[in-house]
Design goal:
Radius of gyration: 16 Å
Shape: globular
Number of helices: 9
Number of strands: 0
Helix content: 55-70%
Distance between the termini: 28 Å
Largest sheet: none
Length: about 160
Amino acid sequence: MSTDLVFLESYSGQSTDELIDLEGTHRVDSIVLAFEQALQSKASLTREEKVILAVEAMEREVNNGGFNQFFCNSSRDFVPDICDALSVIDCPEPAELARSAMTILGVDVSMTSDDIEDISCDASDEQNEQLGELDAVYYRGEEPVADKLFEFIKTNRSSITIGTP
């Protein structure tokens, strides 16, 4: 990620193609964030749009406070889909980290959002320490999640509808 590129501050009604066309002048992480912002207000989502929301929710929460925060906050709604979403965008290491975090907490994809919240927010010190170890691996950022998500968006642009065409 080049630091000389502009950070897109927020989504302002651009179409899918208009956001994609910002590549090269704006930071990719800020472009995928704009996609997330645009999709949050949609009533009905395609599979590809759900992938974007799941991956961005995890990125935001884990980068802000670790895996436990991803499971405790409203982002937990994406927990059942996160491993598949990361696999779809070809991010096997983050998918495995998410799977490991779920195992540490005893979370499975059949649980309700409330069950996930209860389990994760009541994590033991040992579980939180184990999650902290996963966080450290995630923070090293060896897998360019935002870049891979952006490639997924470009490849699947016809299934991602935002803004005016």
